[in-house]
Amino acid sequence: MKSWFKSGTPWIWLNACAVSVSILMVIGLLGLIAMRGLGHFWPADLAQFDYMERDGSMSRLVGEFHETEEVPAEQLRASGDLNIGDEAWVTRHLIKTGNRDVSGMDFRWVIDSRISSLTYPRPLVAVERREWGNLYGYLHSLREAGRTVAEGEAAWKPFMERLARAEVLHAQIRAIEKDEIGSINSGMERLRLAKRKLELEGIDDPARLTAIAAEEAGLQQRYAGLQNELLKLYEAIQRDSVTFTVADGKQVHVPLAKIVRAFRPNAMSLPDKAGHYFAKLWEFVSDEPREANTEGGIFPAIFGTIMMVMLMSVFVTPFGVVAAIYLREYARQGLLTRTIRIAVNNLAGVPSIVYGIFGLGFFVYFLGGNIDQLFFPEALPAPTMGTPGILWASLTLALLTVPVVIVATEEGLSRVPRAVREGSLALGATKAETLWRTVLPMASPAIMTGLILAIARAAGEVAPLMLVGVVKLAPALPLDGDFPYLHLDRKFMHLGFHIYDVGFQSPNVEAARPLVYATALLLVLVIVVLNLAAIAIRNRLREKYKSLEH
Question: Would the pTM count as exceeding 0.85?
Answer without folding.
Answer: yes
